[in-house]
Amino acid sequence: MLIKTTARAALIAALALTSAAAWPRAAGAETVLRIGMTAADIPRTLGQPDQGFEGNRFTGLTMYDALTGWDLSSADKPSVVIPGLATEWKVDDADKTKWTFKLRPGVTFHDGTPFNADAVVWNVDKVLKQDAPQFDPSQVGVTASRMPTLASAKKIDDMTVELTTKEPDSFLPINLTNLFMASPAKWQHFYEKAEGTDAKAKSQAAWAAFAKDAAGTGPWKMASFTPRERLELVKNADYWNKARVPKIDKMVLLPMPEANARTAALLSGQVDWVEAPAPDALPELKQRGFKLYANEQPHVWPWQFSRVEGSPWNDIRVRKAANLCVDREGLRDGLLAGLMVPASGTFEPGHPWRGKPTFEIKYDKPAAQKLMQEAGFGPNKKLTVKIQTSASGSGQMQPLPMNEYLQQALAECYFDVQLDVIEWNTLFTNWRRGAKDPSANGSNATNVTYAAMDPFFALVRFLQSGMAPPVSNNWGYINNPKFDELVKTARQTFDPAARDAALAELHAASVDDAAFLYVAHDVGPRAMSPKVTGVIQPKSWFIDFSPIAMQ
Amino acid sequence: MSELPLSATADAALQVAPATSARGYWATVGRRILRDKVSMACAIVLLLIFVSAILAPWLGLEDPYKGSMIRRLRHIGTSGYPLGTDELGRDMLARLIYGGRLSLVIGILPVILAFCIGTSLGIIAGYVGGRLNTAIMRTVDVFYAFPSVLLAIAISGALGAGILNSIVALTIVFVPQITRVAESVTTGVRNMDFVEAARASGAGPLTIMRVHILGNVLGAIFVYATSLISVSMILAAGLSFLGLGTKPPEPEWGLMLNTLRTAIYVNPWVAALPGAMIFAVSICFNLLSDGLRSAMDIRN
Amino acid sequence: MLAYTARRIVYVIPIVISVALVCFLLVHITPGDPLVAVLPADASQELAAQLRAAYGFDRPLPAQFGLWLLRALHGDLGNSIATGRPVLAEVMRAVGNTVTLAIAAAVIGFTMGILLGLIAGYFRETWIDKVATSFAIAGVSVPHYWLGMVLVIIFSVELNWLPAVGAGPNGSNSWAWDWAHLQYLVLPAITTSVIPMGIVTRTVRALTGDILSQDFVEALRAKGLHERGVFRHVIKNAAPTALAVMGLQLGYMLGGSILIETVFSWPGSGFLLNSAIFQRDLPLLQGTILVLALFFVVLNLLVDIAQAAIDPRIKRG
């Protein structure tokens, strides 16, 4: 499937030569890393990035820190939550909605002002307290939805804050990785200078100014910013975590939404690193000495089943048969050129939330056929299922070819798969409307991929009965008292190890119930010039740019 | 997009045909166009494309929807796939021929709709005159104040992707243009003798518009409308190219151009094929419209 | 002349207000959540309602329109929902890039068009005329976004002479008029120039032919007037109409650049419009459409006035 012609090889070689000559590198000893992102625009720079987790990767975790962070130091171990700007935290014994966070001493923002409890309260208020001057509705959506239970913050002393949740929620420390700490003093400076008819207009103007000249506490500082075209970050030599002071001087981020343009830019030396190179160009890149990195990501490419009355997926034998009928290794080695990890659940073995499911998801066609026959289907009595999907979309990998692959695979197990292909945005919106909504168009499964970093997003919103539309993404109206019970337990277990055990139990139960057709995990492929060294790609959506060096 | 005659009245072809000899006039026009080699060549090419699009299911082509991962992006001339395969391994020849169905409909239908609506509006405005004329023509002016590409994209961008929406958007783009032409030729005829005569003999405004005006202005408006088909084809495919028209997996030239664009580094010439189809249809319509225009130009 | 100019300007005011209304309605009558850019699909309903209120989308449409128009009159088109940046600044920056492209295309297209048109007009009904008019008809019939793709295939993919996309090695911010930057402009400018080239050719050809076939030209020639004199006569008589056509073409290039800018990732107003559409960023969308439409209205006005100034017979309105 990888088409390669000599003409093309020649083209790329020639392209590399001439273009490299046309763009001389930055002179002198300064080391610069230029990255082509997949985003069409620079993610927002004011603290709460847009553009999903790619936004957090490039303009969140680089310039900012949160109270808690992700361990990105290993390519083998699962990436877990570790202390960030908070050194320790605990929930109140008497009132499980109150948490105390001890802050890291001696941290300063890029503008030199100290990080303290006031700064934390200020940053919580920017998205949660509507009458605060810094309240910014544009940052609320991406932030509040990722920490659905946080209600307010209160200063205890300079280095201690108390956070309150709407209900007891042991996931709070994980959620808090999404709340980045921006410098209140810097914002205040812009606010006072801002012109505007009212406080709201001044606040907006101040945020717009802050986005152009931002200050966080992160290992990278903003150097220059051209909207939609270019963001330059320089290393923060005074970063509080000396082990994570960047090795390179400067990082340039360029939005390059087209895979081919991105790949050509890497080949021509216009950039040193691209996210998601064009799959058809991988052999070319390897052959020309470029380095490829990929690792399992907390991401699932599923079919999410409808469980409303009359859905064929209400029969667990059918759900299990579908899971056993797909040759995921074949999909990986064929269509996806190695760029996926076969999914046997939301989390794979080794992950703290994996648990011990008894139903083993693998390719076993005879077993699948047997289950289907037990359920009353056979070569002459096919089961018709309809899947809603899109032709493209963020995180969707290659939705049409992959669904066609499933269509062919499942035909062997007496399924007649019909695809309802709609626009990505519509598919995403319908996800929230549920299987009963007319927008589902009679589909009994939907194909929206999901990120699985946080237990709420990975499990709870799909499995808990209370999360059925319009509340959240339990699209298929799963209503399983066992899941509800396990969710409740996990949310109210505050000892981290015990909480993880409860989540593992929930995950194992969902696998045993074949709650989804689990197909693939994305691997976040990236390609870079051989001059880039020290790259560790963790099992995460994110990556730590600090240990990276340029030769 | 912008190849519209500047002002309709300045155009020689838009002269009003003499009412008395209408049948003889059209016969002459027909004879003249049949003698025009370029027009006839274009007509034959268009006919071929139309007929093959209509007869596509009976031509023994591959299934235009059925792809295969193992035969992606085959080159032109691969045995079994004379025009290669697309990014999902679907046969390009089949998709180009089937693609004619949607592409022609979304390109031509807006002009037909706009012709009907615009002619009615223009004749009413031109014949009735007064406040009604002002109301219609000032509204038309507002839409005229947008460049047509911008207007088409703004409307279909607002309505969202879809075949129906793109037809609506293009119709809205063309109605003001045709209305202007219709109004201006109608104003030209309304005070002519034969209209005065009809009015004197007691004919009502509807009768006059239908019987006396329509027949005399239709030719001019029709020629103008044919010159819009090429623009409409390009714009309709352009909307799909931007992702604002047809949705996958339907075969349609603009959309095919869009999805194949990612393959230009791998299989460039297959990626360029759908655009060549749009070009062929568009240039044929333009030449045919030019031929019709000069055939109708009495002065020559 | 002054009175005419004043009358034209007054006449434009209601057009401008109606154009603003159309922009606003287009963007607001449509289904879909205006906050999709900042509100994830998994946000709670409560949060959605709260944000709608914060952005003022819960107010009745006439009130929203009034407020928007009032602010627009003060030069404030609001802030983009997706990025929070002021719309006017975003649009003007992008328009600057589109102007660069349009001017380059105009230079190519108008020069070629005038040359081809004059030659074709002079040698009417000869093979030279046929070649020139074929060029013109191809120019107006070609789907220019496809032409752009074909040029990229030839000059970037196959020959590798010119870059395929972008506006300079370091983005448009550091634009300079040297070859390192200009090479990015070549393909998009040529692509943009084909339609104006075709139209100007056809216009100039028709004008030249008409003027040359007039009786008094024969008379002038009979009187022994130099061919250069005849030529000057042609230019003088063709100029007003040709200029008007070119003015309008410039307007179309500014307002209709979206397809070409998308093909070449040229960071102009069309590219901005494209991303505003797909992000459903309403303030940015209506602001971009408004600014582009206003450019077109103003250009039309200037063309009218200039035309009347050159040739007082054709005062309109």
Automatic annotation (TrEMBL), chain A:
May I ask which residue range the UniProt record assigns to the signal sequence? 1-29
Q: Where in the cell is it found?
A: Periplasm
InterPro entries the UniProt entry points to: Peptide/Ni-bd, SBP_5, SBP_5_dom
Q: Which UniProt keywords apply?
A: Signal
Tell whether Repressor is among the UniProt keywords.
no
Q: What Pfam families does the entry give?
A: SBP_bac_5
What is one term from the GO cellular component aspect held by the record?
outer membrane-bounded periplasmic space
Instruction: Please name the CDD domains in this protein's record.
Output: PBP2_NikA_DppA_OppA_like_8
Q: Where is the Solute-binding protein family domain?
A: 81-445
Molecular function terms in GO for this entry? peptide transmembrane transporter activity
**GO BP terms in the entry:** peptide transport
What is the similarity comment for this entry?
A: Belongs to the bacterial solute-binding protein 5 family.
Protein name (record): ABC transporter substrate-binding protein
Native source organism of the sequence: Bradyrhizobium manausense
TrEMBL record, chain B:
What membrane topology does the UniProt entry give? Answer: Multi-pass membrane protein
Cellular component annotations (GO), alphabetically ordered: plasma membrane
Task: Indicate the transmembrane segments per the record.
Answer: 38-61, 102-129, 149-175, 217-244, 264-288
**Per the UniProt entry, what are the Gene Ontology biological process annotations, in alphabetical order?**
transmembrane transport
Query: Where's it mainly located?
Result: membrane
Q: Which InterPro entries match?
A: BP-dependent_transpt_permease, MetI-like, MetI-like_sf, OppC_N
Q: Which segment of the chain is annotated as a signal peptide?
A: none
Q: Give every ABC transmembrane type-1 domain span.
A: 100-289
Q: Which UniProt keywords apply?
A: Cell membrane, Membrane, Transmembrane, Transmembrane helix, Transport
To which protein family does this belong?
Belongs to the binding-protein-dependent transport system permease family.
Under which name does UniProt file this protein? ABC transporter permease
- Species whose genome carries this gene: Bradyrhizobium manausense
TrEMBL record, chain C:
Q: Which residues form the signal peptide?
A: none
- What SUPFAM superfamilies does its record include? MetI-like (SSF161098)
Annotated transmembrane regions: 9-29, 101-123, 135-162, 182-200, 242-264, 284-306
Indicate what this protein is called per its UniProt record. Answer: ABC transporter permease
According to the UniProt record, one GO cellular component term is:
plasma membrane
Q: Where is the ABC transmembrane type-1 domain?
A: 95-307
Matching InterPro entries, A to Z?
BPD_transp_1_N, MetI-like, MetI-like_sf
Chief location bin = membrane
Determine the domain of life of the protein's source: Bacteria
Q: Which GO terms describe its molecular function?
A: dipeptide transmembrane transporter activity
Instruction: Keywords in alphabetical order, please.
Output: Cell membrane, Membrane, Transmembrane, Transmembrane helix, Transport
The protein's matches in Pfam families, at most eight in alphabetical order, are given as: BPD_transp_1 (PF00528), BPD_transp_1_N (PF19300)
Q: Where in the cell is it found?
A: Cell membrane
Recorded topology in the membrane: Multi-pass membrane protein
| Family statement drawn from the similarity comment of this UniProt entry | Belongs to the binding-protein-dependent transport system permease family.
